[in-house]
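Take a specimen:
=====
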Amino acid sequence: MIKTSQIAAQMYTVRDYLKTPADIAASLKKIKRIGYEAVQLSGLGPIETSELKKMLDDTGLIPCSTHESGEDLFENINEVIDKLSELETTTTAYPYPADVDFSTMAGVRSLAKKLDKAGAALRKAGIILTYHNHNIEFVRVKGKTVLEHLYELTDPENLQGEIDTFWVQAGGGDSVQWIKSLKKRLPLLHMKDFGVNLEKEPVFEEIGYGNLSWEPIVKAAKASGCKWYIVEQDRDHEKDDPFKSLRMSFNYIVQNLCVE
C-alpha cells in the first residue's frame, strides 16, 4: 500500500482549464482542495516558470514531474534543465513518440539514441528522464515490442519508466509484469483505468471504475521502487467535469490502496 502523499494529479487531465496564468492558479487550488499534495505539469498554457513556481509554493503542491516535448528534450535540453531546476523538479518524461517510425529497427534505434543522450544530460543535472508509453510501443519489431527495445537500447541510468496502465492494457500488455521488469527503473506510474463501452470500444475510466486490478499493480509498483502514483484521465471533458474525475480517483485510491 502507498502513502497519500505519493498520489499526484496529472495536470493534462484539466487541460481545458489551464489556458491562462489565472486559470492555472485556480485549477491548482481546486486540485489541492481535493486532497492531492503533488502534480505532474503538462498541458499548461503560456506561463513564466517563476510565476508557476510561486503558484505551486503558495498552493502547497509539489511539482513531482513534468512532461517535456521531444523537440525540447532533443534540441533544447539546457532550457529544460534550467526550467526543472527552477521548479525543483527531479523527474520528467518524454510524453509521446510523435513522427517516429516504429516500422523498422532503424527508427527505434534512432529514438533510443536521442533518449539516451538527453537522459545523460539530465542525469548530470540531477534529473531523471522517464518514458511515457502509449499503445503504439507494443508494435513488434524483430520479435520484440518497441518498448522492450527502447529500454534495452538505453542505459538504465539515462532512461527510466513511467508506465501508463491504460495504454499497456490497450497494447495487449500486462501492467504488473511490465512494472516488475522495470524494478529500480520505475520512479513514476500513470494510473488510468480501462473500461469498455457497448460499442466494444476501450474507454478511459476513473481509478476503481474500470476493469484493472489495482492492488497487484500498486503492490508491484511499490516493490519496484515507484515514488509517485500519478492519476490521469485522458477523456475529452466537454460533457464531464475533470475535477470530479480527479476526485473520484483520489477517493478510491485513498480508501482502497493507501496506508495513511
Notes: The chain has one domain: 4-257. DSSP finds ten helices and twelve strands in the chain.
